[in-house]
UniProtKB/TrEMBL annotation:
Signal peptide per UniProt: none
A GO-annotated cellular component: axoneme
Role, per record: Cilium- and flagellum-specific protein that plays a role in axonemal structure organization and motility. May play a role in outer and inner dynein arm assembly.
UniProt cross-references to PANTHER family, sorted A to Z: CILIA- AND FLAGELLA-ASSOCIATED PROTEIN 300
Name by which UniProt lists this protein: Cilia- and flagella-associated protein 300
Species, as recorded: Opisthorchis felineus
Family recorded in the similarity comment: Belongs to the CFAP300 family.
Length: 219
């Protein structure tokens, strides 16, 4: 993912309206500053007919989901269990971790559909799957710790005045663009590790764009 995973932060000066998030994302992708920044990272915003915006659940304030995955796919010391080589969704899979993340028919039910939809699960999966050519880590704890730090850096939290517990205030949106032929952004080819997220902090009025197009990264 080196050289292909990018994060950019932008500020906005109007109140963010939750019910109008499609308009916000559309304006964002037409902003000259955003277009220029994305282009410098090799990502061009093309002409499009349809803006597809998915609101991504983001309520996890601990790493419970990742610990569940560890219990299913790794040994107690964190070493990832191996499996016979297979290609799933154009990714070479040689271990139980990536098999679990990529195989939609995987029998494990300990991680629910709702947990799989969470931004934390998606972020962890993106980190573990990596790029087209990558040296996979053998210990899952490396992925969990990196995901924890990245997750913390991307999100804004505040203390609930009633419960005194931390709650996430960032709003996460997954974005795709389509024309009459199909998807055109962030890539013309859909892939589990091609993504474009807009992470909005409505209080600080900033948005982080996190994006990656699956392929060969830098060495």
């Amino acid at each position: 993912m080196k050289g292909r995973l990018h994060a950019r932060t932008f500020s906005f000066d109007e109140n963010f309206k939750l019910y109008d998030h499609n308009v916000f994302i559309g304006c964002l992708l037409k902003s000259p500053g955003v277009i220029c920044a994305l282009k410098s990272d090799g990502l061009v915003v093309p002409e499009y007919k349809h803006l597809l915006v998915e609101a991504v659940p983001c309520g996890s304030t601990d790493m419970t989901i990742c610990r569940k995955i560890k219990a299913l796919t790794a040994r107690e010391n964190g070493m990832i269990k191996k499996c016979y080589d297979d290609v799933i969704q154009s990714v070479l899979v040689s271990d139980e971790l990536r098999k679990f993340l990529l195989d939609e028919e995987h029998p494990y039910s300990e991680v629910t559909t709702a947990q799989r939809a969470e931004f934390l699960f998606r972020l962890f999966a993106h980190v573990c799957i990596g790029g087209e050519v990558c040296q996979n880590e053998e210990n899952i704890d490396v992925y969990i710790e990196f995901t924890r730090k990245l997750y913390r850096d991307l999100l804004s939290v505040q203390k609930n005045p009633d419960t005194k517990e931390l709650q996430i205030v960032s709003l996460i949106y997954k974005v795709e663009l389509e024309d009459d032929t199909g998807v055109v952004f962030p890539s013309a080819v859909r892939h589990p590790n091609t993504f474009f997220y807009a992470i909005v902090d409505p209080f600080k009025r900033n948005v982080i764009l996190l994006y990656h197009v699956f392929g060969c990264g830098e060495f």
